[in-house]
């Protein structure tokens, strides 16, 4: 099962308040203005709140989603 989370001007992604680092199971893809977090294989342990934070000179924005597996 493939899950993805999209955002613009991504700076960090957190899962249940811990910063996610890219691994074999968590891939981060960038196309210039949009970043995508791909969970290559989602398990029940991956369920939870994912928060994307972006910051630049214009300000800061966050977006979150709750993933159920």
Mean pLDDT over all positions = 76
Shape: globular
State the helix count: 0
**What's the structural domain tally?**
1
What is the string of helix and strand elements? EEEEEEE
Q: Which consecutive residue ranges, at least 5 long each, have pLDDT under 50?
A: none
Total strands: 7
For the record, give the distance between the C-alpha atoms at the N and C termini, rounded to a whole number: 10 Å
Q: Give me the CATH superfamily.
A: Immunoglobulins
The spatial strand order of the largest sheet comes to 3-2-6-7
* Class derived from helix and strand content: mainly beta
Percentage of residues in helical conformation: under 10%
Largest sheet: 4 strands, antiparallel
CATH architecture: Sandwich
> Which percent range describes the beta-strand content?
over 45%
- CATH class value: Mainly Beta
Describe the structure.
- Residues 16-67 form the Immunoglobulin I-set domain.
- Pfam families: I-set (PF07679).
- This protein has a four-stranded antiparallel sheet with strand order 3-2-6-7, with no helix packed on it.
- The model has no long low-confidence stretch (mean pLDDT 76).
- It is built from no helices and seven strands.
- A hairpin with a 3-residue loop joins β4 and β5.
- Helix content is 0%, strand content 59%.
- The chain has a single domain (3-67), classed as Immunoglobulin-like (Sandwich), CATH 2.60.40.
- The chain has 69 residues and is an all-beta fold.
- It is globular, with a radius of gyration of 12 Å.
């Amino acid at each position: 099962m493939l899950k993805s989370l999209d955002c613009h001007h991504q700076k960090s992604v957190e899962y249940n308040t811990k910063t996610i680092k890219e691994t074999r199971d968590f891939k981060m893809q960038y196309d210039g203005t949009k970043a995508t977090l791909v969970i290559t294989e989602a398990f029940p342990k991956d369920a939870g709140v994912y928060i994307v934070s972006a910051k630049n000179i214009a300000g800061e924005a966050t977006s979150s989603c709750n993933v159920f597996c």
